[in-house]
Amino acid sequence: MLSAFTARPIVELKQRDKSKIESILAYGDRVLVGLNTGSLRIYRVNEPTEEPEPAPAQNGHETGEQNGESPDQPTTPKIKPADLLREEDKFSRRPIQQLAIIKEANILVSLSDSHVSIHDLQSYTLQEKLEKTRGTTTFAVTSNIVKDPSTGIPSIVSRLAVAVKRKIILWTWQDMELTGDAVEITLVAAVKSLTWATATKIVAGMDPGFVMVDIESQEVQDINKPGALGEAGGQGGTRFGAVSSSGMGYMGMGSWVPKPMSTRLGEGEMLLTKDVNSLFIDTDGNALDKRQVPWPTAPEAIAYSYPYMLALQAPSKGGLEVRNPDTLNLLQTIALPNANFMHVPQPNISLAHAGKGFLVASDRCIWRMGAQNYESQIDELVLNGRYDEAISLLGMLEDTLLQDKEGRMREIKMLKAQGLFDLRKYRESLELFSEAKAPPERVIALYPKSIAGDLSSIKTEKDAEREAGQEEPNAEDSAEGSKVAPSTPASLVGRSMLGRFRADQKKADSDTASVKSLKQDDVSDAAGTIGNPSEPAQADKPLEGKDLKIAINELRAFLAQCRVQIKRYLNINGTLKEPLPAPSESQPEDYKPPFHYFIPQSVPPEQIDWAAKLLEVAQLVDTTLFRAYMLVSPSLAGPLFRLDNFCDPDVVNEKLYQTGRYADLIDFLHGKKLHRHALELLEKFGKNEADEEVSPALQGPRRIVGYLQQLPPEMIDLILEFAEWPLRTDPGLGMEIFLADTENAETLPRHKVLDFLQQIDLKLAVKYLEHIVEELNDLTPDFHQRLIDLFLERLKAGRDQFENDEERERWRERLQTFLKSSSQYNKIRVFKQLPPDDPEYYESRAIVLSKMGSHKQALQIYVFQLKDYQKAEEYCNQIYLSTPQPISPTKSFQPTTTLPATYDPEDSEPSIYHILLSLYLTPPSPHQPNWPPALDLLSKHGARLPAATTLDLVPPTLPVKELESYFRGRIRNANSVMNEERIVARLRGVEKVEIETAVLLGDGRVDKHGRRVPGGLNRRVVIDEDRHCAVCHKRFGGSAIRVYPDNSVVHSGCLRGSVAGKRNTNSWR
Questions:
Q1: pTM score, two decimals?
Q2: At a CB cut-off of 8 Å and minimum separation 6, what does 106 contact?
Q3: Please, what sign has the CA dihedral across residues 850, 856, 857, 862?
Q4: How confident is the model at residue 42 (pLDDT cuts 50, 70, 90)?
């Protein structure tokens, strides 16, 4: 049970005093007591002083005697709780039923003899007896600060509402002066209670129920109770407190009807009660969705002392109930003999915070209720395991009343979540841990070592045996200590304490005690209650089997949420995304970064390396999540590794290797950049050298080749180290490491790769060189030269290096093709490497000579050594097409008169065909003229052979008939040139006419009406007085002008200055 308040009697009537206390009023340090004799007593309340408690007596001696002090030594006189300052015997002739003050007006309001009277607050003399209030049953006073709607100036407005039978009479004071006449509002029945809801609204309680009265508009609104489904008679619209079929029993009890009562609670909330029924409403009179207060009997009085709801039971029952207005649970019961009414000072009157120093009175005694410190109240609730009550109390209290309210709330939520975890309510527990932003380390420690590792707080049998072995040397000491206090595990201390507490309080707290929002009848306290020793509590059962799987599934969701939150602050390399601010004077001493709640804080904040601690938490979260996946859903571990993670490599490596999940292990090692370890495993699995059986997907070189393809070029040494085995096992597959169409393969250091491949196999080096030269278009001369060298090295090695002659021929063709296509190699060096007497290299030598520009020597090889006239002719065609030809006179747009009529552009110099023809007709010794290929060349390419030089080669003995085809080709070529010149001349004439037409008549544009717009020299430009020169901005007058094609006009003298601005125009006129 909570000790929120302690009762301290401050006024007790003496036995010889036969008067009774009828009413009380407290303001400041004064307490006014109204008696049944009509007297008014004024007391001053003295604050209690803290006195040291005397030490307990020993051996029958008092403390003073034990310390050697004389028992006759004078002691400090004890201060009385309250001093009687004065007594007004003739305050009233009848019992004083109610008292109130309007401090701003300096008046005291009293109810006596069914009348309301006004007294002076200082002298207590009667100022006025309000005759209109005859028959008053109760009244209510309120004071508020109200701004004037017209001026906006605030003023204090006090109101007095008096219940006179069916009427409510209102008086108003503004800034100490009574304003206006009394206002009367008539209701449907006699008013039994009044409570101000706001400055302008008041709740009136009657036998037929409660109503909300707006004193400004005098509107009366019924307060209806909420309807329930299936309630007969449509009770949902019935006024709360009205006598219904369930209330007919009152008629048989001497016509007794319970008194309606109401009180204000927190901001914007009120409580209405009648008998044991209750209703929570807002200040507009609307019912709130809250259950009824579980009172065992009808309360005698209700009130609100921040932040608790108070209910005074009947004097025969005895006791003051203190409840939480949020949970409605009973927190404390204070025994007060014969107490029958209480008084809570208004917050703007009492010096105590929000009226917490309230008064409770009986006929003979007045108690002042002193509130305990809020911190100690919360500590007591937590010690008793009443976490819901502690959380609710923290939510109601203001931040300034507590030290680190947010931290306390967070800690209590985590304690509640831990209790729920012990009760096997894993989902609720982990959701509450997430809400409280609990450090992952604290949550993970609740799990066994298979999940939490060394962090686990659950001790296994091996741990118990190990501890027992360590305690054996000290068996005697431990046995002696066990006699004094039995050993209790640290994790069960809180539960055992709470169990003893609940065992003692079971009967007193059985009505509404709620711990962790659990019913007492169903489960034990959330912190654990050890009931029957022979039946262990559910919380003490080991976490295993189905319960463990359920708990792990909930932990996965918690850890996944933590991962997302941590990644907002931490990079994958362990650095913070946003650096922490540098310490400064403006920075608070206890500064904490926004992610501080992830980190358990056992040292002051300034001593914590936040970045390192956050990295440790990230590693813990990911490693634990991995363990959870492996225990519950091993198939989900793979996706975790493919993402950036902070898993501990040692833990993951050991676990995956034990379970045979080698593919996931490789993915993890790749993600953690532990490439050497991964490659060693892949090579081991690929060679099938593992002790365990591996999947076929990991056997062979394919998997290691795929892994090597993903490595960046910076790791070339590692790539080459592990690429040798795939290249020797499957060269075609292994070469994919270097030939794949990926950025990594294309950016590898090519010289290192080439040297490595050449050491393994010359053919692999040739394949790599062809790839980088032909496909990647690498123009490095060294690569081109090395490729030719490797070709020649293998071709010269002999026929034994080839499987058959066809393969050797293919290599020779590849060499010739590359000699033709490349121009980056050293021609002289290659020419010297080619054997001059080997017929297999004749054509290669001719290709190299061609690259060197020695066309005659190349043609000599084709004509005299190869005797392949077709290839010689193809060679000439290739050279002719690749050599720039003289520009035709018609293509240069020059007048035909610039060249003579008999000009032949090909007569300028001999062509490549002329060289071949000379080799046919005038070969060097000892070769003879070869007429058939020569005549064939003349007939096919006569137009490309200059007549002046060609006819000189023809011997006089050759019949002219043999040259017919040659002359026909020459004549046709000359006619083609002349015809081309004529056509070009005609086309130029047409173009000239079009240009002149456009200059004179324009480009033929039409307006929107389809009419031709004059243009060119035929267009019109209007010059008026408003038109100015586009350059000097002066009027034109009679000056000479120039008009641009866009119709802009300038002075003729300004033309030069405007040329720069009109460079984009075609011309001007």
A1: 0.67
A2: 120, 121, 122, 176
A3: positive
A4: very high
